[in-house]
Design goal:
10 helices; 2 domains; binds cytidine-5'-monophosphate; 12 strands; 27% strand
Length: 334
């Protein structure tokens, strides 16, 4: 059912992501950093529902709702308005009401805002019947909205290059089990973490090589071998995130002490992703972290999972057809 009951509504489910590799290169002239990253979509989902409305609006529910803006700065609203503006000539669209059920930690390095933007693009394309808007245009709009948005359209496991917006899918069979730790109120701003990374590199005079995908990681992913993947998880932003939120060092130590195969800060943090070998290990680790680790939300997830996917299209209730009245000669039969 649509939130309003009987009007047309489209719902899309979208996962969060973690980064199995995040190699950060030098800062470019446009202020972004050249990246080579391996995105991995995990089974923590937001659900975005759109329906026609008199004016544009966004409403957020779920455990993290209080931390999400509900004005025009919400990336989902920007996404809907951008698609409306770039729609093919001759098509007509109505403003939409956007409802987000928010389960992906906010400002956590899991691309939750980007995920909602990607989901909104998919939902509005369906609602507005813009079938002829090709994936290429959707991806171009997505890239303009944010570096992580194109990946959230794809999901799975994929290499991101450029500033993260150029996606090359990796075909990998099998799944990995994760335990995610998200600290309430620890949220980090992405630009702040990149700036801290630059500062730490400058202080240490670390040479900054051009970022490239890790061959070892790609090989390990082909077999989806948790220990082999765990051995090469790497995030160049991790030291910067730990420098800004020192509790993350305690979280990483606690997870490893409690039996995680490996742990890594996701993206610009502060979510920490622990890799385990099975669902049973995930349960043990999450119970251990809840009892003995630093305070935070603990979620079990698997990956890879698909990106933004249509889950429901409620069509407006059609008025029942008028009863067929027999003509003057009675009903036509035969
Ligand atoms: O693209 P997005 O809006 O997600 O990026 C947010 C901020 O993160 C950018 O303004 C920039 O400061 C930083 N960033 C970066 N290099 C990237 C991606 C993001 O410096 N490749």
């Amino acid at each position: 059912m649509s939130p309003a009951g009987s009007t047309e509504a489209v719902s899309v489910r979208v996962p969060g992501k973690i980064n199995l590799q995040l190699a950060v290169g030098p800062e470019r002239d446009d202020g972004y950093h050249e990246l080579s990253t391996v995105f991995h979509a995990v089974s923590v989902y937001d659900r975005v529902t759109v329906q026609p409305a008199e004016r544009w609006s966004v409403h957020v529910t779920g455990p993290y709702a209080h931390r999400v803006p509900t004005d025009d700065s919400n990336l989902a609203v920007v996404a809907a308005r951008t698609l409306a503006r770039r729609r093919p000539r001759g098509t007509k669209v109505d403003p939409v009401r956007i409802d987000i059920d928010k389960r992906i930690p906010v400002a956590g390095g899991m691309a939750g805002g980007s995920a909602d933007a990607a989901a909104t693009l998919v939902a509005c394309r369906e609602l507005w019947a813009l079938d002829h808007v090709e994936n290429g245009l959707l991806e171009e709009i997505a890239a303009g909205l944010g570096s992580d948005v194109p990946f959230m359209l794809h999901g799975g496991t994929a290499i991101g290059s450029g500033r993260g917006e150029r996606i090359t899918p990796i075909l990998a069979r099998g799944e990995l089990h994760w335990v995610l730790w998200a600290g309430e109120g620890l949220g980090l701003s992405t630009p702040e973490v990149y700036a801290e990374c630059d500062r730490l590199r400058e202080v240490a005079r670390t040479p900054v090589p051009d970022p490239a995908p890790s061959g070892e990681l790609l090989t390990a992913l082909r077999r989806m071998d948790a220990d082999a993947v765990g051995a090469v998880l790497r995030n160049d932003l991790q030291d910067a995130a730990v420098s800004l939120r020192p509790v993350l060092a305690e979280v990483l130590d606690a997870g490893l002490d409690l039996g995680a195969r490996a742990g890594v800060v996701s993206g610009s943090g502060p979510t920490v992703a622990f890799l385990v070998g099975s669902q049973a290990e995930a349960i043990d680790l999450s119970v251990g972290l809840a009892a003995n680790g630093p305070m935070g939300d603990i979620v079990r997830a698997v990956g890879p999972v698909p990106g933004a996917q249509l889950v429901q299209h409620v069509r407006p209730t059609q008025p029942p057809p008028p009863p067929t009245r027999p003509g003057p000669l009675g009903p036509v039969t035969g």
